[in-house]
Specification:
By secondary structure, the chain is mostly helical. It has one domain. About 50% of the residues lie in helices and about 10% in strands. The protein is built from 5 helices and 2 strands, in the order αααββαα. It has a two-stranded antiparallel ribbon with strand order 1-2. A hairpin with a 2-residue loop joins strand 1 and strand 2 (about 70). The radius of gyration is 16 Å and the shape is globular. The two termini are about 25 Å apart.
Length: about 100
């Protein structure tokens, strides 16, 4: 519903999901197909995925979102923030409700 109001078709695009999966695998060693890195506890993998999600949305600029040579993140495109965050800013930002 929210996606339709934002102008999206409402249909899941497999290419976008697969691209996001590839990006996550490239950044998290335990998700690689051939890796010695593993997580013994699912909670640790979940925590790593949450860190990656924040990094992906707030810290990592996306080339497809650039406007007039300015780097932008998905959070900037959505209007959640007005600047590119540093990794230390993301890690130390207080999270409400946790």
């Amino acid at each position: 519903m929210v996606l339709c109001l934002a102008g999206f078709s409402g249909q899941i695009q497999t290419a976008y999901i697969e691209r996001l999966n590839l990006t996550a695998r490239q950044h998290i060693a335990a998700l690689l197909r051939r890796s010695w890195s593993t997580y013994r506890k699912p909670a640790r993998l979940q925590a790593h995925l949450e860190l990656f999600r924040g990094f992906y949305h707030f810290v990592r600029p996306h080339q497809s979102l650039a406007q007039q040579r300015l780097e932008r993140t998905p959070a900037m495109a959505a209007g959640w923030t007005d600047h590119l965050w540093s990794m230390s800013e993301w890690i130390t930002h207080p999270v409400f409700g946790s």
